[in-house]
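User: I'm writing a tutorial on reading structure tokens. Could you give me a worked example: one chain, its sequence, then its tokens, then a sentence or two explaining what the tokens reveal?
Assistant: Sure. Here is the example chain.
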Amino acid sequence: MSVSTIVRCAVTGLFAATGLCSVPGALFAQIPEATRTVPAELPLGFTPDGDVLVHTASGFRFPAQVAGFTRMKESGSDLSGEYVAIGYERQLGRDDKIIVRIAIVHLVDMTAAEHYTIMKPFAMSHFSAASVVSETKFSVGGQPDLSGYRGVFAGERDGQPWRFSLTTVDFGYWDGRLASAYPAAQASEAESSLDGLLSAFRWQRPVTPER
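And here are its predicted structure tokens:
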């Protein structure tokens, strides 16, 4: 199995859990394959703005290119419009990649730390010998009223050492979730790239839909 396939399977799997997709504001939803990076047919729940996909319900924007990352073919949503996820990837060195999945989801009365705690076992289940490297609260630069939580993990897949991370942010009505995975040998470059991606998105704030 290729490096990119291992990463894609692990990160996609973090967001795929059956049985909850039909519940509005569900934590988890299946992530179907889309057909194009800039799709001729829009993924469910999105509006186009040039090469940017805009989550219609929240206004959150997913550019085709951002901070050295390229938006991937895979996207996901549920019928309620209260869960969407978009994948990004970036080359690391000659042969490796970091894969990232960003989700916007409506959760009721749940802090970023609680959101993280619920998702943590799913994140760790996709790698063997998984262990916690670090867990910490963090603040979103430029938006001090937002709370976030981030964990970094070590594990193995097909005998290779990996690092993977899980980040959650409480925006109020909406919550954000970012999962990533990358070979441990490329951890320094990957984590620097991930910081750049988080910084590029930090000024966005999903809007509460009108009822």
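What the tokens reveal: The chain has three helices and eleven strands. Residues 3-37+49-201 form a domain with the Protein Transport Mog1p; Chain A fold (CATH 3.40.1000.10).
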